[in-house]
Amino acid sequence: MSGHHLILGKLTDFLTGEVLDDTLDERYRQKIARRLVEQSGYEPGEIEPRRDLLLQADHRRAVIKIDFVVRVAGRVGMIIRFGPGSLVSRERPALAISRLVEAYQVPIAVVTNGEDAEVLAAGSGKVLGRGLEAIPSRSELLDAIQSHSFEPIAPLRTVMEARVAYCYEVDGACPCDDTICRLS
Questions:
Q1: What's the predicted TM-score (pTM) here?
Q2: How many whole angstroms separate alpha carbon 16 and alpha carbon 137?
Q3: Is residue 70 domain-resident?
Q4: Is 28 domain-assigned?
Q5: Residue 86: which residues within 8 A CB-CB, separation 6 or more?
Q6: What CATH number corresponds to the domain at position 133?
Q7: Does 3 fall in a domain?
Q8: Could you tell me where the DSSP H helices lie in the chain?
Q9: What share of residues in the chain are helix, strand, coil (percent, to 5)?
Q10: Residues in Cβ contact with 134 at an 8 Å cutoff, skipping those fewer than 6 apart
Q11: Which domain holds residue 81?
């Protein structure tokens, strides 16, 4: 056992070839990665798995992992957050992360439990689609990028979104979750 995940052995990451702990959650992440490449048309190099994101809420800091950051046409166009259970409880932190991962508002945020998904217009939070099949294909994401303004996030908004993300992702996490690095 590591943290709160039962380790079933080792597996090879579909995107990077890296050897990872084989957990039930990681199996779902691998399923999502395969779907993005094999069904949605993304190149493996356009998908960054496990990107570190530093969150700060006043004097408290932590690093979390973003499951997938998808970059096409030179822009991050989509983030994907995986977590078991309810999708609705993951919407707000995913929107916050979509405002922190780059200096601009990322157009699409996806929350998924590996069996279901919600695709959100990250600027408004509006649900654009439900189900794994609603996750935008590469061509659909290119269209979304072309019509997106990529406005920079205001500094005060960045501070507030970091607090929201910290609250959900760090304060709300299981104390034994070893995927979060609490820095202070």
A1: 0.92
A2: 20
A3: yes
A4: no
A5: 113
A6: 3.90.1570
A7: no
A8: 24-38, 88-98, 138-146, 155-166
A9: 30, 30, 35
A10: 117, 118, 119, 128
A11: 48-182
The phi and psi torsions of 145 (rounded to 5 degrees) equal -65, -40
Tokens standing for residue 140: 């659909």
Residue for token pair 């998908």:
47
Confirm whether 39 is domain-assigned. no
**AA letter at 59:** H
Helix axis angle, 155-166 to 88-98, nearest 10°: 150
Number of CB atoms found within 10 A of residue 29's CB: 22
The 10s digit of each residue's pLDDT in 18-67 is 998 888 899 999 999 999 999 999 999 999 999 999 999 999 999 999 99
The single residue listed with the structure tokens 């993300």 is: 165
Contact 116, 87 (CB under 8 A): yes
Query: Tokens standing for 127?
Result: 């649900």
Domain count of the chain? 1
The values of phi and psi at residue 38, to 5°, are -80, -30
The Cα 142–Cα 54 span in angstroms is 27
CA distance linking residue 62 with residue 82, whole number of Å: 19
Tens digits of per-residue pLDDT, 133-170?
999 999 999 999 999 999 999 999 999 999 999 999 99
- DSSP structural state of residue 99: T
